[in-house]
Structures are given as C-alpha cells and as structure tokens.
Amino acid sequence: MGKADIIKAVKANKPNELPLPSLDFPSSNGQSLPSLFEERLLAGGGEFFFAKSRVEAETYIQSRIKAGEYKYIAGALKSLNTFDLASIQDPHELELLNLSVFEGELGVAENGAIWLSEDRLIHRAAPFITQHLILLIREDQLVDKMHAAYAALRYHDYGHGVFIAGPSKTADIEQSLVVGAHGPKSLLVVMLPTEA
Amino acid sequence: MSHPHKAQEFIANENRVNWHDKSLWHVREKRDKAVNLFPEWEQLREKASQIKSHTLSRLDEYLEEFEKNAIANGVKVHWASDAIEHNDIVLSIFREHGVQRIVKSKSMLTEECHLNPFLEKHGIEVIDSDLGERIVQLAKEPPSHIVMPAIHKKRMEIDELFQKHLHTPPSHGDENILTAAAREHLRQKFMKADAALTGVNFGIAETGDFVVCTNEGNADMGVHLAPVQISSMGIEKLIPRYEDLGVFTRLLARSATGQHITTYTSQFRKPRAGTEMHLILVDNGRTVQLGREKYRRSLHCIRCGACMNTCPVYRRSGGHSYQSVIPGPIGSILSPGRDMKKYSSLPFASSLCGSCSDVCPVKINIHEQLYFWRQDITQATNEEPAKKISMKMTGWLFTKPKWFRKAGKFGRKALAKLPRWMVYNSMNVWGKHRELPEPPKESFQEWYQKNRKNNG
Predict the structure, then answer these.
(1) Set of chain B residues whose Cβ sits within 8 Å of the Cβ of A164
(2) Smallest Cβ distance to A178: which of B179, B244, B262?
(3) What is the tens place of the pLDDT at every residue in B193-250?
(4) Is the ipTM reported for this complex over the cut 0.95?
(5) Cβ A44–B263 below 8 Å, yes or no?
(6) Of the four, A99, A149, B68, B288, which is 20 to 30 A from B176 by CA?
(7) How far is B247 from chain A, CA to nearest CA, in Å?
(8) Residue A165 and residue A108: Cα distance in Å, rounded?
C-alpha cells in the first residue's frame, strides 16, 4: 500500500542513472529590460505606465480612479487606502475589495511577470479576489529571464508566492479572449526608476 | 468503440470539423510566434528533456527528498498507488473536516482517477472552476482537450447550457456576457467551498514547493479561501532543483497557448496559517510505464497540449474520439500502457508525420512511440484481421516481381473499367471519403523499357 509499494516499483523499473544538466543560459543583451517588460506585459493583457517618481506614480493612479468609483481600496499606497488588510482575519471578507495595490518584489522582462509573496500580500487571496489590481515595480528589480528570477528567489523564504503576468483571463469560449475570468478585471503595472 | 468509429460521429458535420481544425491551428500558430522570438528554444527543450530523464532515473530518491522537505514545511503528504487509493484519501480528508462543497481547478490526474463521480456518489458537491471545465461539467461531458477542455463547443451551445443551468438570458453566445455570468456563479461557489482541490504542474524535490499554473486564477481563488487544500500530483511531475523551474516555466505556456508565461504561476510551500495543505503523490500506472524502456519518455509530459494542437488527426477528429482522459498523440502513447485492448486503435490514429515530436517541449519521441505501439498491438492482439491478411498478401507479392507486375497491370486496367460500386465497396476504407487517383496508363517500368529501346 502507498509509499513503500511506489518506491519499490520505482527502484525496480527505473533506468540506470542519467546525468543532470547544468543550466547556463546566456543573459539577454540588446533590448532594454523595461521596454521588453512593457512589450510582454501588454501582450498578456496588462497596462503599463512609467512614472518618474513615487509622487508621479501616486498622482497617475489617483487620476485613473473616478471619484467614488472604488469603495474598498487596499495595499501599498496609504493615500488611497480605505481598507486595512491587516485587520482582516477571514479572507472571505476580501471579496469587498475593488482595488488593491502592491509593491512587486521582482519583475521578469521576458514575460512581463511580477513576483509577489505572502509577506507583501498579507493575505494570499488578495491579488486574486480583488476586482482590479495595480502593481508597482522598480526598474532595478527587473531581471531578464526566469532563470535569473529563480536564482534570486532560491533562498527567499515564503509560504506562498506567485508570478502575476496580467489580469485574470480565459479563452474557453471559442478561443475568444475575455479579461476578468475569476480574478482582477484589470492589471496596471507602474514602473518606477531605480532611485524611487 | 474504436477511434475511427467515434471519429465518424465528429466528421459527420463538416463545418464543425473545419472550424475545430482552424481553432487549433490558430493556437499552434501562436505557439510558433512565441517560440520563434528567441534563439535558445531548442536548447531549452534539450535541457528540459535531460532534466526529466535524469529525474526518472533517480525518481525514488527525489520522491523521498520531496516528501521530507514538504513535511518539514508543514504539508501533509499522502501516497496513492492507484485511483482507488487516491479517491479514498481525498474522501477521508473531507470526512474528517465535514466537507460538503468543494471547488476544483483543472487536474487531468483527478480526471484520470474519476474523482468527481466518486465524490458525488458520496454526497459531496464538486464544482469545476476552470471555465472550460465548468462548461463540459454542465454538459456532462469529459474535457476534449487537456488545456482547452471545451474547445469542441460552439458559443451557441454554451449559451444554451448557461440558460439552462445558470438561468442567464440568451446572449447569442456573447463571450463577454457568458464569462461574466460564469464569474458571478463561480464566485459564489468559491465563497462557500469547504475545501479546494488542485492539480500540480511541478514539484521541486530540493525545497518541497509545488507549482500550479492557471490563466484564470481559479486554483488560487479556491485554495486561498477554503480552509482545506488538497493538491494531487502524479509522481512524474517532480523536478530536482529550484532552478529547474526556470526551464519549465519558460516552455509550458509558450507551448500550450503561445503566451510567454501563464497569467498565474503559483508556488506553494507552507499551508496558510490556520489551514491544512494536503499533497497526494499518485502512481496509478506510472511506475509500470517507467519500466517500459520504449515508452519511458512519455513520462516527461508536462501536459501542455501542443501535440494535440498540431496533430492533423486530432484537429479533424476531435478529442472525444479518443475516449481516453488524455486525447491526441500523447494520449495515444499513454493510454495503451493502461489498457492495450481498450485503446488498441489509438496508435493508428496518426499519420506519423512527426509534428507532435517536433513541437513537444520535453522532446518526447511521440511519433516513434506510436509506431512502437502499432507493432506491439499488432503482435499482441488480433484486432483487424483483414488488415493483417492484406499486409501479408502484399508482403508476399513484393517478393514476386513477376506476379507484382501482372497484378499492377491488372489493377490499372480494372480500376479504369470496373463500375463504381465495385471499386468503392465496403472493403475499400481508403475510398470512403476520397476519390482514388486516376490509374496511369503504364507503369514506370513499362515506360522505362520503351524509352530505353528508343533512345539506346
């Protein structure tokens, strides 16, 4: 039953040992990382804005929100917050969230994905259950490829983490793309310069 | 029922066949576009294949390492030799927590274990939360594709299903209206679920992490809200190192849909505070396949579906014609390993064009394995005696040049003169949907001899 049987069967049936390859993919050169990131993010259905400073980022985000449009806003921008993630015990209460803003920990240029872990999110469900999502990322947090991303995350301690590369989407009805399947109906990434 | 018989039902509607064919080819084209953007694609495939081969060669050690690390992370690890054990483990966890309603994200493994009907029989409400899976669940059909479960369904059919089951107003199949309706319906289910179930794309031995990839975010919606998470993982989904994820996350979505990465690549290490995270490691025939040298590489599969999208037979016969949980070329080499007799027609549902092997991100020699299965099946079974006899006769004829020439001459004359009903009879399977080519007036040999004489 179970483990003993499976291990025994594997031992009996596995081939002689084959080598594990080393991974040595070249770093990309040429295209700048922010512009590649933007291109790939847009391809995945996200929106992109490059802000020159934190102040500009906040002003831009505020300008995108119509007065009274979002009742419950949570996350990294204190000037916008109307919802305190830390005060919530039961993640089901997050269903109220209209907009959430988080600081990304790492961005990947080749696919427009941003890594976020539980520490930043407070609740694992937050970036999924919110109706709209905004992520901030600094230029110096970009890496070129997934190999570099995993090299950076290798010794990062997390309970749960996720790469997010766009709004929630589906093409299950005749291959027609629809944004907002279960999670956020939009994703805006605001990029900040290194010094911001 | 054999693949040709089931395919006949699908091809009865030519418009649908053409539409299905085009939809999938479109996905194949998107894949090509994404893949051709960077030069190291072939290198990535090669590394991925080597990593998988290596992992299989030390699978017992990596499974032990993975279990040890996952347990240290607070994950409850279970082992299931087969589908029955898997389903019993799931049910016992649910019983312990008084679970009545669950949400599931896509998992071909739980399809393979027929988990849904099992749980429903025990009074548990099971909701498939991937939109495509929800559509086929409402239609009481199995998925017809492993990445796009409802690829065979027309928008008007989905509209009618939603009217009936979700009480939506008619929308003429508007994908935005239908998806919005599903979103509302499924949000209610997510909010009320007592447990959430997912499949697993990759398990990492050295950290105990496991990774679940979706575009909809449905796996995350489920597990981050429910108090109990169960993830079911085939033992072949293991990879040794954390850095190996870099190779596979680069290959998976590009191969599947032409995206550079899935919208969500969710990595689980520890349970959420106050909740339980269960992981079930499932064999269910995988160790048997591991022992079959010719077919071992089929265990490299990362379930991207690229071989289906490119397959001329799959595209024109539809996923349901395979009658196996995994359809298409990869299903045709996995399924006979489970039940050679039941799936004996599948390795023949191929033109052996090799396109499946060309697009496979982990370099499975799919078309070669299809050919191996044909030989094994022909040896082991007597499925098509007519084919066997005609092959034997043809083989004999090829060894007798005189008779071969005579037969050719007779054939060319007869084909031109015989009435249609005699040529296109039930024995001529090839001529069922095709016209035979016009027979040439002479063979090449006849032509050659004539011209040699004339020209010296």
Answers:
(1) 263-264
(2) B179
(3) 999 999 999 999 999 999 999 999 999 999 999 999 999 999 999 999 999 999 999 9
(4) yes
(5) yes
(6) A99
(7) 7
(8) 9
> Which residues from B are below 8 Å from A163, CB to CB?
249, 261, 264-265
Closest by Cα among B364, B358, B287, B359 to B332: B364
- Written as six digits, the tokens of A144 are 């070129």
Residues 6+ apart with CB under 8 A from B429: none
Q: Backbone phi, then psi, for B232, in 5-degree steps?
A: -105, 130
Say which of B187, B240, B268 has its CB closest to residue A160: B268
| pTM confidence score | 0.94
- Within 8 A of B186 by CB-CB distance, chain A residues are 182
Distance CA(B412)–CA(B305), nearest Å, equals 44
B244-256 helix and B14-35 helix, angle to the nearest 10 degrees? 140
Q: Which residues of A fall within a CB distance of 8 Å from B264?
A: 128, 162-165, 168, 183
Residue B136 contacts A where some CB pair is shorter than 8 Å:
no
Selection from B337, B336, B341, B346 nearest residue B6 by Cα: B346
Q: Does B33 touch chain A (CB under 8 A)?
A: no
Which tokens belong to B249? Answer: 């996350």
| Residues B248-296: tens digit of each pLDDT | 999 999 999 999 999 999 999 999 999 999 999 999 999 999 999 999 9
Q: Residue with structure tokens 């000037």?
A: A79
